[in-house]
Amino acid sequence: MSEKTEKAEELFKSGYNCSQSVLGVFCEEFGLDFDIAMKIASSFGGGMGRMREVCGAVSGMFMAAGLAFSSAQNSHENKTRQYRTVQELAEKFKEKNGSIICRELLKGVDISNSYIPEKRTENYYKKRPCIELVRDAVEILEEYIKNQIII
Fold it and tell me: Where are the beta strands (DSSP E) in the chain?
């Protein structure tokens, strides 16, 4: 397990959502203030505000990929490169977990899409695959970064 993976797990266990936990471990490397990153990623937990859409860990991975591979330049080339990156990362996550959709990843877990988050109890961590999904997202992006040229 990498240092980033361990830190992401610690962030999640300390109460940050899945998206915050993934993005948070890449902040320093790409020059994003941690507190600002936590605010940006706060809406993406639980599959975007607990609506169970795109997994928050995946959203955090995509945000970090934007820091790693995109530029502020508003160009067709930049968008094309970034969308390719997102699709490649999504495919790697799907290969490992079967989906990037929160409700599909939580299949078999009694979930609701209420805006009220569940209390983080020992049972919460036992019944959900979220820590593993956070780890997977960090590992996938770390490996992807190693194999790319960062702009």
Answer: none
Tokens at residue 43, please? 């809406």
Per the CB < 8 A criterion, the answer to whether 38 and 12 are in contact is no
User: What is the C-alpha separation between 76 and 59, in angstroms, rounded?
Assistant: 22
Q: Note whether 50 and 38 are within 8 A (CB).
A: no
Residue in 120, 119, 113, 125 with CA at minimum distance from that of residue 47: 113
Q: Which of 66, 58, 98, 59 is nearest to 84 (CA)?
A: 66
Q: Is the distance from CB of 68 to CB of 25 less than 8 angstroms?
A: no
Tokens 């169970």 locate to 52
From residue 54, alpha-carbon distances to 26, 27, 69, 74, 90 in Å are 20, 21, 21, 25, 10
pTM (2 decimals)? 0.94
- Condensed to tens digits (0 to 9), the pLDDT of residues 108-144 reads 887 887 898 888 888 888 889 999 999 999 999 999 9
Q: What's the pLDDT score for residue 108?
A: 84
Residue 45 structure tokens: 């937990």
